[in-house]
Design a protein that fits this description.
The chain is an alpha+beta fold and 265 residues long. The chain folds into two domains: 115 residues, no CATH class; 138 residues, no CATH class. The chain has two helices and 20 strands. Strands 7, 8, 11, 15, 16, 17 and 18 form a seven-stranded antiparallel sheet that branches. It has a three-stranded antiparallel sheet with strand order 12-13-14, with no helix packed on it. It has a two-stranded antiparallel sheet with strand order 1-4. Strand 13 and strand 14 form a beta hairpin. Helix 1 packs antiparallel against helix 2. The longest helix has 37 residues.
């Protein structure tokens, strides 16, 4: 039982280390645009069946199960809405409601993000700050054509709530491409690939859908949905639990040392 106690406490301490790492990542990204906080789901490693001998029948009988610790089952993300920060930049876009912007890297890889901090490259294409392309509803690169159009400033570029891009040409609006807003039915199947970008683990079972309940707000950015105070409280609770388990390990170790000494005598 002493060894089992050590094993259980050690498993619990490892789970708390994983929890603390997850919390630390949330704290580090409280100011990251489009960041979605992560959390861990734990499961029992296995339950040990506790046997007790019946004093009357001298037979062993089960009196229940005892957990021998937990481990991380999976990492999940909270896709709840983050607060919007108004920037006034016409290429800063925030999604209110469901959906993601669809991004294509220079290598052709597809990812999805809530980080709408975009800009226009030298070719007039709408891109992320890392130069990745923003795609429209038909999966095409978005090119803002300003040739032969009188523009007084970038504020003449208007992006409507449905993602439709328009140019205000001396009071006449010229319709251009529509930014694609896509969603997934099973967000628990999404993984983060860095930079507030996500992709489905299995695109065949969790297929891309056109988002429906959303609105695009131009001149704003969606900030991280991680809360510093809540994450710090988690850190404190994790530290207390870790300290309690470390005392269990020390106590079990002392008992084991004593038992070994007695056995030698």
């Amino acid at each position: 039982m002493i060894i089992r106690g050590l094993e259980t406490a050690a498993n619990g301490m490892q789970a708390l280390i994983d929890q603390n790492d997850s919390t630390a990542n949330n704290v580090a990204n409280v100011n990251t645009v489009g960041f979605k906080k992560q959390s861990l789901i734990f499961q029992n490693i296995y339950n040990s069946n506790v046997i007790q001998k019946d004093s009357q029948t001298d037979e062993n009988k089960s009196v229940g199960e005892l957990s021998v610790g937990s481990r991380v089952q999976k990492l999940t993300y909270d896709f709840s809405q983050g607060t919007l920060d108004k920037t006034g930049n016409p290429f800063d876009l925030a999604i209110q409601g469901d959906g993601f912007f669809k991004i294509q890297s220079n290598d052709g890889d597809i990812s999805y993000t809530r980080n709408g901090s975009f800009t226009m490259n030298n070719n007039g294409e709408l891109v992320t700050k890392d130069g990745e392309y923003v795609l429209d509803v038909r999966n095409r690169k978005i090119k803002i054509k300003t040739n032969d159009v009188v523009m007084h400033s970038l504020n003449d570029i208007i992006i409507n709530e449905d993602g439709q891009i328009e140019l205000n040409n001396e009071g006449n609006r010229i319709t251009m491409q529509k930014i694609g807003i896509f969603d997934f039915s099973n967000k628990e199947d999404m993984i983060c690939i860095g930079g507030s970008q996500f992709k489905p683990i299995d695109p065949n079972t969790n297929k891309e859908l056109k988002a429906e309940k959303f609105s695009v707000e131009q001149g704003s950015l969606e900030m991280s949905n991680a809360n510093t105070v809540n994450e710090m409280i988690k850190t404190i609770n994790t530290s207390r639990n870790y300290e309690a388990l470390s005392k269990v390990v020390k106590s079990s170790g002392d008992t084991l040392t004593t038992a070994i000494k007695v056995g030698r005598i």
